[in-house]
Every structure is written in structure tokens, then in C-alpha cells.
Automatic annotation (TrEMBL):
Catalytic reaction annotation: 5-diphospho-1D-myo-inositol 1,2,3,4,6-pentakisphosphate + H2O = 1D-myo-inositol hexakisphosphate + phosphate + H(+); 3,5-bis(diphospho)-1D-myo-inositol 1,2,4,6-tetrakisphosphate + H2O = 3-diphospho-1D-myo-inositol 1,2,4,5,6-pentakisphosphate + phosphate + 2 H(+); 1,5-bis(diphospho)-1D-myo-inositol 2,3,4,6-tetrakisphosphate + H2O = 1-diphospho-1D-myo-inositol 2,3,4,5,6-pentakisphosphate + phosphate + 2 H(+); 6-diphospho-1D-myo-inositol pentakisphosphate + H2O = 1D-myo-inositol hexakisphosphate + phosphate + H(+)
InterPro entries in UniProt: PFA-DSPs (IPR020428), Prot-tyrosine_phosphatase-like (IPR029021), Siw14-like (IPR004861), Tyr_Pase_AS (IPR016130), TYR_PHOSPHATASE_DUAL_dom (IPR020422)
Annotated EC: 3.6.1.52
Domain Tyrosine-protein phosphatase residue range list: 53-202
GO cellular component terms, A-Z: cytoplasm
Keywords of the record: Hydrolase
CDD domains the UniProt entry points to: PFA-DSP_Siw14
MF terms (GO), sorted A to Z: inositol-1,5-bisdiphosphate-2,3,4,6-tetrakisphosphate 5-diphosphatase activity; inositol-5-diphosphate-1,2,3,4,6-pentakisphosphate diphosphatase activity; inositol-5-diphosphate-1,3,4,6-tetrakisphosphate diphosphatase activity; phosphatase activity
Family, per entry: Belongs to the protein-tyrosine phosphatase family. Atypical dual-specificity phosphatase Siw14-like subfamily.
Top class in the EC scheme: hydrolase
PROSITE patterns: TYR_PHOSPHATASE_1, TYR_PHOSPHATASE_DUAL
Protein name: diphosphoinositol-polyphosphate diphosphatase
GO BP of this protein: actin filament organization; diphosphoinositol polyphosphate metabolic process
Amino acid sequence: MENGELKQELGFLQHEFQHRINNIDKLGEFLEKEHIEDKESAPIIKEFAPPENFAPVVGKIYRSSFPRVENFEFLSNLKLKSILVLVPDEYPEENLNFLSKQGITFFQVGMSGNKEPFVNVPHDIITQALKIAINPENHPLLIHCNRGKHRTGCLVGCIRRLQGWSLTMILDEYRRFAAPKARPLDQQFIEMYGEKEITEIATKNGWLPLKW
């Protein structure tokens, strides 16, 4: 691994570690606020649980699986400004109510997923999602699909392309989140995605470079 790639990987790991530490601190503050003597109380911890596959991406962009009611308390502490949903299905009423109470803007760019043999994520759909995801006016922002693996993984992979990550690092990250069902077509899409249009838009609007 080249020095530049190693620095990028170390930067990602350091940021993710610090974010997890911050979340632990927030959990402690939450429990103290509620005057809970037993800080290992299962119900409270469950209510404060992050969605599956939750992780920071870059800056104030986050990723996860589909949030459930028990994740709302955790998400409220992120002070989200926007949520970008990558599934085409109607959004649950309880989730919409949560967004409304928190003043969170709802974006939906429905994707069918890269499933063999003939169902693929269209190039223009990913570009549309990227315009929303990397626009600082929408941050802090959470990206999610159903499991936070495949569609979210494709979008995050394209964000990494804009960051200048090596393809090896991008696909390694994709496989970590998609395991045990990494899709070859997802990885092919990430590799073949033409970022010229979104790069021009992002450069014109001053969205690049993306920073931690």
C-alpha cells in the first residue's frame, strides 16, 4: 500500500474511532440526565442504539441501515439536517413523524439495486443522489437503504471516488459492510462509474474537496 493510501486509511479509521468514542460519551450524558443508577439497563441502551451498519462516511455524512423506532434517540443526537433514502418504497409514518419533529429534510432517490441478471442502478440516479449527499447545505446527513450494505455501499463507493481513494481501498470498504453478500455488480458499478458530471457540478459549487 502506498503512503498516500495508508494515510487515507488511517484517517478513516481514526475518524471512525473518535466518532464511536463521542457516541459513548453521549450515551453516558443521556443516562446521567435521566438519573439512571444502573447504566447497564438494557431498555435504555436499546432505545439509544444506532441503526445497523451505522458509521461516519466523511465530514458530517453518515450511513446506516433503515432506522427503526429504537434508533430515533441515537439519531436525534446527531442533529441531522437531512436524510437521503435510497429505497423506492413508501417511507413509514413513524419515521416521517420523527423527521418532522426533528426538522429533518427528507430526500428520496429510489434505486432498485444491482441484482443479476438485468437489474442495475442507473448512472444518472447515482449522480442525482451524489448531488444531494455531498452538498454541505444538507449536512449533517444520513444515507440509508434497507440494510445499509448494497445501495448505500454503491453511493459511498462513488463518494470515495470523488475523494481520490484507490479502487482497492474503496472495494475493501464496500466488502466490509456488504459481507457476507458482496455483489460483483455493485463493485463493477463503483469501478465503472463516470464521475465527470458530478465532479464538474461539485467543483463549480465549491463542494470539493470533501474534508473530514
